[in-house]
Amino acid sequence: MHPMLNIAVRAARNAGKILLRAGEDLSKVEVQQKGTNDLVTNIDKEAEAVIRDTILQSYPTHSIVGEELGEHKGKDADYQWIVDPIDGTTNFIKGIPHYAISIALKVKGRLDQAVIYDPIRGELFTASRGQGAQLNSKRLRVSKTTVLSGTVLATGFPFKNKHHMDAYTEAFKALFVHTADIRRAGSSALDMAYVAAGRIDGFFEIGLKPWTSAAGELMVKEAGGMIVDFAGGNNYNHSGNIICGSPKLTQAIIREIRPVLTEALLR
Ligand code: IPD
Ligand code: CA
Ligand code: CA
């Protein structure tokens, strides 16, 4: 295992212990509101601090950006870590056992290492650029499905930005009629890890933040998948509008939703 991936795994496991311990008594968890339907807890912050400390202990000059603690500018801007301490905070707060820690490393602006760790199931998804993606050391491949018929897709609802609801619903309808079913499990990092694992055939969501999607992006690509924005381009890091799956299924998804999208989502 690449030494930097090893540190990412250590950081994720350290954070996982904090989440599991806190999950045993949710009444003690302090919840704050960041925005509309956007919640954060003291545990998100504690977990991110531990991840940050674990990374900086080994790589004191690296830079880190995290959802809750913001940016740490290290001397070395070539190495940037991107951290989501709990992807699925709403699930975590409600006691729904489905959330993950997501950690990615970019080297000179390029995704290099990724970890998505589900502490409840003990599932560790990892990827290294050019080396493939793994679940607990077993090699991952995206699903072989090429058409929407019979597929199970995953998505996230725009619960923090309900003004996107109409556009999103149109896209949902256009896809739903062709699929077997669509899941909304509440952790997009895990949705993307599941795409890499072939458990879910494809995924789409609007307005994802980089800490939610960075590790998932490398995971899907290293498992032979494709990731694009809603117009089929690569503006997804800017817009956060993401479609991913096997290359053929991704194209099939674009074909269905493109005609119903408003200008605002076509990027
Ligand atoms: C959220 C989850 C959710 C997705 C949202 C994300 P958070 O992350 O990934 O599945 O629908 O767009 O913001 O806030 O729990 O880290
Ligand atoms: Ca989060
Ligand atoms: Ca997130």
UniProtKB/TrEMBL annotation:
The UniProt record lists the keyword Ubl conjugation: no
Enzymatic reactions: a myo-inositol phosphate + H2O = myo-inositol + phosphate
Cofactor names: Mg(2+)
InterPro entries recorded: IMPase, Inositol_monoP_metal-BS, Inositol_monophosphatase-like, Inositol_monophosphatase_SuhB
UniProt entry keywords in alphabetical sequence: Hydrolase, Magnesium, Metal-binding, Transcription, Transcription antitermination, Transcription regulation
Gene3D superfamilies (alphabetical): 3.40.190.80, Fructose-1,6-Bisphosphatase, subunit A, domain 1
Domain of life: Bacteria
Molecular function GO terms recorded: inositol monophosphate phosphatase activity
Enzyme Commission identifier(s): 3.1.3.25
Keyword Transcription regulation on entry: yes
NCBIfam families associated with the record: PRK10757.1
Protein family according to the UniProt entry: Belongs to the inositol monophosphatase superfamily.
The protein, known as: Inositol-1-monophosphatase
Gene, per the UniProt record: suhB
